[in-house]
Amino acid sequence: MTDLSQPRLDPAPAGHLPDKRQVAASFSRAAATYDSVAELQRDVGHQLLARLPAGLSPVSRWLDLGSGTGYFSHLLARRFEYSQGIDVDIAEGMLRHARTQGAGTFHIAGDAERLPLRSATCALVFSSLAVQWCANFAAVLAEALRVLQPGGVFAFASLCTGTLHELQESWRAVDGQVHVNRFRALDDYQGLCGASGFEVIGLECRPHVLHYPDVRSLTHELKALGAHNLNPGRPGGLTGRARLLGMLQAYEVFRQEAGLPASYQVVYAILRKPEGA
Fold first, then answer.
1. Which pLDDT tens digit goes with each residue over 128-156?
2. Is the terminal CB of the chain with fewer CB neighbours within 10 Å at N or C?
3. What is the total count of domains within the chain?
């Protein structure tokens, strides 16, 4: 059985990121549709897997943090044979869906800022496109450091400022309200990782651009993923027709031959817990 303990109480400070209860509810609702529209999530996770250190095996126990539907849990289980896998996600709906996929892992509802695991129990913490929803990223780093064994690796992919800038600028052309999720800056990731106690093996930002025939296709996908606008300050109720048409016209300025671009700025990081820690 997985060694569990009571989570440490380390509340995240109030910030401009979404309330995690709303994040959990949104992704729970999206569990059934998530995999059908998760092109970006697949590509980013595969790139993160490719960045894992070659000498990481054997891994006796790994944690998929923000595991979602369990897609990457299957790949981790295949890569690290005879290992024990743990899926942790804040969205209970995602975990219920993952249990039906038969990955053979433990599924635990938990918060990345207060992991319900004992210290030094994992050789790898893998997290793809999940920690951008955590307001207190210093707490995420501290928890990953705590649950890792000496020499263990924390590999994460996240999003930083500049993500969906086309959509953000198009809305800015018609009003000053918050219509697009906001993310921390790359400098913040660099500073927090550098001060975390981890050895930073690699940390870089890579752009990833998807194209859509129209804005509706993009916003429909974001809703199906559970990643539509969840930020404090977002407008309530229906958006006026004139403002919506203005946003659509403003977005057309960005159109390329392949369609309307949606740019994501993806942070990839490989951190190692020092042997003596």
1. 999 998 989 999 999 999 999 999 999 99
2. N
3. 1
